Amino acid sequence: MTYEYKRLRKAKWRAKKKARATGAWKKYKQLQQQMLQTDATDPMDPGYRRLHYIRYADDFLVGINGNKAEAEALKNWLGEYLREELQLELSAEKTVVTNAKNRVRFLGYDIKRWSGKRILRFQTQQGVKTQRTGAYQLTLLMPVDKTIKFAQEYGDTNSWQGKHRNKLLNLSELEILMTYNAEVRGFLGYYSLADNLADAAGGVLWITMTSFFCTLAGKRQCSIKKVTKSLKKGPNRYVICLEKEGKGTKEYELITSTSQLKKRKVTYGSVDLIPKTWVYQSRNELSKRLLASECEWCGIRGTQVEVHHVRKLGNLEGKTPWERQMIERRRKTMVLCVECHDELHTGTLSEKKKKLRKIRRAGYAETCKSGSEGVSVKPDIAIC
């Protein structure tokens, strides 16, 4: 801290103490303005040195307050240490020495030094507050190439217009919306620390929103204008409503702004997870069992299957093996082959056939490993 800044700080403290007693705050405000215009540290101090080290897995970043010669010497020492102590080789192509005023890529972020002082604005319970930062502060930026690469999956990045996605047309409208939200939330959530998030995310949100409308228009076989009109519930707010018996109507909103992203406090325990979009695209449990074309009692495959359905699990007494199996699995349905289904209704379904299922499944696994699975047969399905 410079001598001039210390002198002003002491004078400001004395003026504040005197102003509280007399009510004369003019001198205090003058000293406060002088402090804002005075550097607290000497940027030209030749004896000042500082080193910052950040590592994530096998990627690391070293920040040095010093000259380039010292940075080169540290790089050479680090290469020798890794080679002699850890038997590792430092990549000369990936390890570079550069000035902080140029952008540096680290963990997907661009790190850059601001050339001047910045005024930060942040929301508090008392309102919007402003705070000045010191000179030569580092900032995190969202890279432009990462934004374009993500947006290319949704449309044309030259005109920034979205396109429909055929692979989502077989999903319900709610599943399509949840898929888009999960993908956008995963990408922008990773770059939530970027200072230019609000500016850089505008193009991403626009192209994903137009792509969603195109996909929904393709599913409904109507125009995009009709889709937006049916979903719009306010300025830049698009909602799909789902009515549930006894619970009213629940709204699912499309992410169209960074203000809709929930920003959590950054901690050392925070982990970035890949968005699980597959949970919105899976079939229901009964459909999977039917498409498996496997009898759930004897284990035979590739034959016609039927579904045995009971009204309530409470009606089952558990006297027969197949009743006990349905009770244990808590299922009101059981997929059976025609032979087992007929035996179930006649009361002759044997528990010995159930043991054949393990043998057949083991043999089927060996067949798949050897590559002689054969041609798959689309099953015939009947429900009774």
UniProtKB/TrEMBL annotation:
Pfam families with a match to the protein in the record: AI2M-like_HNH (PF21368), Intron_maturas2 (PF01348), RVT_1 (PF00078)
Signal peptide residues on this chain, from the entry's feature table: none
Source organism phylogeny: Bacteria, Bacillati, Chloroflexota, Ktedonobacteria, Ktedonobacterales
GO molecular function terms attached to this record: RNA-directed DNA polymerase activity
Protein name: Reverse transcriptase domain-containing protein
Source organism, top-level taxon: Bacteria
BP-aspect Gene Ontology terms: homing of group II introns; mRNA processing
Domain Reverse transcriptase, residue spans: 1-111
